[in-house]
User: What shape does this take?
Amino acid sequence: MRHLPILLFVFCSALYSQNYQFDKLITYEVSLNEIQSTHQKVINSKNSNYNLFLTGNLAELFDSRSLVKHFFEITYLENHISLKYVRSCNESENFKKANEEKWDYRVEKINDNEFLLGKYKSQKAKNPLFLSKIKIEESTVEGLNDLHPIEKEFRNLLNSHLDKDKIYSITEVGFYSNGKIERNLKLIQTAYYELDLSLPEQLNYDCLNNIP
Assistant: This one.
């Protein structure tokens, strides 16, 4: 895939409303069904409520507060990229049921660098409905949400296993289903990138299209 240039500038020709700011570029490997692919996303290291995912010539901005996805076309120029807004999709209904569920969150320490994160139907449940394994390492910059966002319930439990005087990053996340790994994310590189992105004043809501 094409990697972003060192300097990032975004140009759009529209009246703007909501603005998003980013400061870190994450490059990571995704393993799915024994197939590996490289992906990138841009994040705000101090605000994990939104992420901008980059795939080829398409970009997808997801805002977990509004539960809306925004889609853009990417044009790669000599020393910057241009993002052209295409459409938005409100996915609040898809998340409504999940948010109403009451889960029992559990964190199990495997060793100093590996932990199991499980979501159970109740405190009596023996088998998790969702299970992931994370690998962490000490870091100079906090990065527990860089590779994949961690729910606050997991974060609170995980903190009890970590040294409060140290800083950590997650370097790998494996997602399991029926005891077998289904998908794995592995951190390749992080880099500082300054990016400001604004949405047009009038949004085009269209969830039927699978591509922008």
Notes: Confidence is low (pLDDT under 50) at residues 5-16.
